[in-house]
Design goal:
Number of helices: 20
Oligomer: single chain
Strand content: under 5%
Shape: globular
Order of helices and strands: HHHHHHHHHHHHHHHHHHHH
Structural class: mainly alpha
Length: 426
Amino acid sequence: MKRFGLATQIFVALILGIIVGIVFYGNETAIAILAPIGDIFIHLIKMIVLPIVIAALIVSIAGVGDIKKLGKLGGKTLLYFESVTTLAIAIGLLAANLFQPGAGVDTSSLKANDISKYEETVKTTGTPSVGETIVHLVPTNVFESFTKGDLLPIIFFTVFLGLGIAAIGEKGKPVLTFFEGILEAVFWVTNLIMKLAPVGVFALIGVNVAKFGAASLLPLGKLVLAVYVTMIFFVLVVLGVIAKISGTSIFVLMKVLKDELILAFTTASSEAVLPRLMDKMEKFGCPKSITSFVIPTGYTFNLDGSSIYQALASLFVAQMYGIHLSVMQQITLLLVLMLTSKGMAGVPGASFVVLLTTLGTMGLPIEGVAFIAGIDRILDMIRTAVNVLGNSLATIVMSKWEGKFDQDKAKQYVDSIKESKESKVA
């Protein structure tokens, strides 16, 4: 008898959620019932993210215990992140010029959504300089960073704590054992929460469709198409080439991460898959010390999907208002996005905040973002999946670069997935 895997369950939940959303379009009672269910699932995921990142980093870094090796890994990782995200921004700009998604869009036929909370964030935070971004890495109060869920200062503190535990030798072993126990326990909780994923996806999709309706896609269909086509091109060509150079295949990686990519796509939350992503990449042959550092850092610095989206959306707004940007202005836009997409890390609604900041810096009308807000969930789904895939590949690249990728372990894991699939069918 065939048993349905998590990916199939989530896909069915997605279809059912869309149907329920269409049937109950505009029904406030249905929205009020579904919204808390989806919110609870996302809260459950966010609840376990920080404990896993902290415990995994401490366990892996205390195991390495070498600040020179860590500094070398950090430098290589940031170089790779900056190179790939800059390429993603450039491809987004080229796609916007090719597709012209904003040309001919009648703003009078579009519904403007409320973006005041994002505008307020921009006013409050401003556009951080490179120096301010670097200073932000070092927390003044680590407990405040924990409360805000601000990953970069937390990673900074945790790295030093891990090195400290390694440095004190025998005295640090009980602390290390404690965090190893925490890591195992939180992974157990993760597996429990994942059983609720189909219910969470059903509610999240149902609420979104019930709020905005399928008709909201039509006026901005060209933008949706441009974003999806560009993202698919980036994955197959750019990430595909990087994967090939790294000695693997992007299709093999997608097969390994099938459940996680579908979950990221349907929930539009990269946090929803972070624990399982770290676990999967270790099973795929990447050492814990690299996986625990690269993936959490990549969640801030290596957002390929978000970079493409921000470039496309910026030019979409310019085109919608009939503003022509010269080649030099678009190069300036690329440089601005290189800074703002990193500087706004950890801010709630980061993609909108980055977009508003970028438009303001370039002198483009920020009110254009209000028209995109209604379809942002549809765009967020694909960019989240691309972000997850990009960070997974980055872990393999860094493992290869450090000469620590276990090719035999990767092959065994892929073979075990095939065997598991065959046993389910049987």
